[in-house]
Fold SDR family oxidoreductase.
Amino acid sequence: MARTIFITGGGSGIGRAVAQRFARGGWFVGLADVSESGMAETAALLPKGASSIHKLDVRDRAGWDAALADFAKAAGGRIDVVFNNAGVPVGGPLAELAVDEIERALDINLKGVIFGAQAAYPWLKASAPGSVLLNTASAAGIYGTPGASVYSATKFGVRAVTESLDGEWAADGIAVRDLMPAFIDTPLLDHNANRASNEDIRSRVKGAGLEISPVSDVAEAAWAAVHGERLHTLVGPTAKRMALFSRLLPGLVRKQVRGRAGAL
């Protein structure tokens, strides 16, 4: 029987790339998203009969239970990996952010991950050992930067959830991992940082002289994370530099971050 992975945010970007990578590896893939058209486009890129589609708003706790049960039915009763990937961008000075923008990011990026972990637990316990909860954190969960206070808060939270559950679920044989990508070439970069901004995130990243990594790098990192032992998997040169310098030279990182205020 093929191993199975349930992917939120499966209608585009990182979720789509990870779906393609695992399908190539012979896995049965569950696609979850609020966009039915996006999921259909992803499914069309996968081998016939290698996926199922499940409409899900990750903020809906009951919706999680229903989607996972439907996926398990389509996948032969077993869920090996749940990939908590759905997320939304938000950036810019905190004073410029609207209340609903802040709440949306917190609800999707953090509450959605917590709900997903809670809903996934009985399924992953049943398929353990060897089952995995994989979360999309971020380089923004390594060190907070100007213009990313809310987004960083959500990703520090995802990192904390990963570390907490790594210990909490060890006795159950469930592995817990996360990915920490920096800027990845997905459609999210073409969104404005916030409603008051007139510049998209991609332009800001390029203007700050930072690199944008291909989404295939994240897909390969997800494959390695599920099959490896590393708790946090860094993706992209910026993430790797930030992790190294924040550990060895925290004063230098703080100086550079303060000097970059307003760049992003």
